[in-house]
Amino acid sequence: MRKLGLFATAFALATGVFWVTMLTSPAKLEAAVQTQIDTRELTLKAHFEDGQPSDAF
User: Fold this and answer.
1) What does pTM read for this prediction?
2) Are 54 and 46 a contacting pair, CB within 8 Å?
3) Cβ atoms 46, 56 nearer than 8 A
4) What's the CA gap between 32 and 45, in Å, rounded?
5) Which residues lie closer than 8 Å to 54 by C-beta, 6 or more apart?
6) Per-residue pLDDT of the chain (57 residues; tens, 9 = 90+)
7) Which residues, including other chains, have CB under 8 Å from residue 50's CB and lie 6 or more apart?
8) Contacts of 52 by beta carbon, 8 Å cutoff, 6+ apart
9) Which DSSP symbol is given to 50?
């Protein structure tokens, strides 16, 4: 029974330390800018004379 009590105490202490850390100095993530697909450029570079299907939908 003592081991269970020690485990519960250690778990509660670790949980408390985790939340104090997250609330005081959270991890900082930076989102990267994603490039947009330029459909106009893709259309201008397409070779329609090759007979490839070019359905948009």
Assistant:
1) 0.47
2) yes
3) no
4) 28
5) 46, 48
6) 899 999 999 999 999 999 999 999 988 888 887 778 887 887 777 666 666 666 555
7) none
8) 46
9) G
| CA gyration radius, the chain | 29
Tokens of 7: 């485990």
Residue pair 54/48 in contact (Cβ under 8 Å)? The answer is yes
Tell me which amino acid residue 30 is: E
Q: Which residue has the tokens 């070779």?
A: 47
Cα–Cα distance, 20 to 57 (Å, whole number)? 52
Our CA dihedral for 17, 20, 26, 27, rounded to 10 degrees, sits at 0
